[in-house]
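Feature request disguised as a bug report, sorry. It would help if multi-protein outputs had a clear separator. Right now it looks like this:
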Amino acid sequence: MFSLLIGLVIGFGLPVQTAINSRLRNIVDSPMRSSMISFSIGTIFLALVLLITMQGLIVPIATFAQQPWWIWIGGILGVVYLTGNIVLFPHLGAAQTVIMPVVGQLIMSMLIDNFGWFGLPRHTLTLVRVVGGIVVLFGVVLVVFTNSSAGTLKTAETRHASLVLPWQIAGICTGMLSAAQTAINGHLGTVLQSPEKAAFISFLVGTVALLLIVAIYEHGIHIRPAFSTHNPWWIWLGGVIGSLFVLGNAYLVPEIGTGLTVVIVLFGMIAGGLVIDSLGWLGARRIKVKAIQLVGILILVCGVVLIKLF
């Protein structure tokens, strides 16, 4: 029961993190700067976790020579995923910013399993898993492409449903990159014999990449507005929540298995997205959730259960 509660909590925290980072984006006037702050805080937090647990921060030099190059790029993919969510949030709302990447994650995870990419064992697609994928897509159609959901998106950027579609496709693509990051970090955790250290390396690589991108393309690291006393204190929590999400998954997979972890975390993610949308928490745009969308979400979760548990 304790493990299930952890899964729900960290899942709920992911859309909360996206909402926080979106607010931070408005303050520093850049999704890249917002991601940089979040990654930096997450890296510091994970470094403290490693030091407290006496694992150390150093990676053996031989590891760099013996392992494939792609084992170190998880952080880069994480940057794209996190920054993508920050950009998507104002256009899609919290619920869709959760759901569209989930679709991408499922597509990519089935491809990775089927072809054994990133050094993982192959798991050939079965009829049940294919049916599960179809059920997921049907659930997404009910949630996203109904008149009720399209009609709620009336910001200056998304007054017509046709303008929402590119953002939804972008959400699916970021989700695919997130699934690849998870597989890469999982392999790195096995190599380093520490999922915590793998998470730290991923965050560190992402932080360095963002520092360089912001310094070069945004002409310096200008984050002074974030330190204004007029800002809410919680704008600094995005990186900590992201770190806890990674650590929570690292703890849960050995305890309850990958399949059940994904399903429980998904429940938490969708619940968090719906709550933020319906209540307008953390400065998010308030979006009314309709009954047909709840039905679609239930169908989507059933599809995920078929894919991950059978």
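(second protein starts here, but nothing in the output says so)
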Amino acid sequence: MQRFLRRNAAGYIFLSPWIVGFLSLALGPILFSLYLSFTRYDMMTPPQWLGLGNYEYMFTRDRRFWRALSVTIEYVALAVPLRLAVALGVAMLLDKGLRSIGVYRAIFYLPSLLGASIAIAILWREMFGLEGVVNQFLALFGIQGIGWITSPSTSIYTVVLLAMWQFGSPMLIFLAGLRNIPRDLYEAAEIDGTSKLRQFFRITLPMLAPVVFFNLVLQTIEAFKTFTSAFIISHGTGAPADSLLFYTVYLFNEAFKFFRMGYASALAWVLLLIIGVFTAIAFTTSKYWVHYENERD
């Protein structure tokens, strides 16, 4: 025990604020929501025990649950790779030794600070409206614009585009990873006549694999929890035609619009399990493509 404390005491001391906060503030509500997921609860009357009733209804009779799940998975599949690609591309540009790189980092990180705000979501909704800035720009070239937000076939892509714009956080992580790649590798590759594209796939990506994995897991979790942009752009309904019925929007409406708090708690726990499954798949498959410098054959 003494040896364990000597090796890990510092880490637990730094973790103690989070541990105390979790045990005192978060654990109780989490366990209570688990209990509520097995009940019918409208916040006005005492919870009524249903057992697995909420989960049975969810998987067998609730079509909107499956619609919300499919919309969310489509969004995750589109937004996460595109955001990571943009973040990596910008990070590689900033890794070229530009002057005043701190200013550029701040500028590119700014959308990540603003992107989740209500004001930006409203601005985005107006920009892609029928008479918004996007259609006005297209009109300059004689192109007839459409209602990007009001069309079920294009509405989700506007939210994906907003997610791509918020690339600042993974960009900084990629930039830190790029700075840790030895320059000697690139110099040796250039002496051998290796093209820039081949250097990217043979040096940059393999050396960045742990960073890519970290960003992939983190951004996937965040994408599943996307709420503000979808809620504001769809006016809180998931419209048009449920094309923006994100899982979190559906959960919010069930809890605070229809006061089905028991069912909303069940939805929340299913979302937790879904995120857990995707995270477990990522960790299981990472051994085939993520390699660390201190690994031994």
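Even a blank line would do. Unrelated, but nice: The chain has a mean pLDDT of 91.
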